[in-house]
Design goal:
The chain is α+β, with helices and mostly antiparallel strands. It has one helix at about 25-40; strands at about 10-15, 45-55, 60-70. The protein has one helix and three strands, in the order βαββ. Strands 1-3-2 form a three-stranded antiparallel sheet, with helices on one face. Strand 2 and strand 3 (about 60-70) form a beta hairpin.
Length: about 70
């Protein structure tokens, strides 16, 4: 990075809807891929997978995607 140059990294987090199928990692990956495609041309910097539990103790994976716009 050149002196004085600044980058702004954007991000979004996504999970499946609460309820039946919320634990499906393949469904989450498809949702995240669709969202990335909808952003247009971006440079993906990082993808973070989180395994969380909902209030009832059921698995609820989430992903956070960090990206730069060209």
């Amino acid at each position: 990075m050149a002196e004085g140059e600044r980058w702004t990294v954007e991000h979004f987090s996504q999970a499946n809807p609460v309820g039946q199928g919320q634990e499906s990692v393949p469904a989450l990956l498809r949702r995240v891929a669709d969202t990335i495609e909808g952003l247009g041309p971006v440079n993906i910097q990082d993808v973070v997978f989180h395994g969380e539990l909902d209030d009832d103790g059921h698995e609820w994976p989430t992903m956070t995607v960090y990206f730069l716009r060209p």
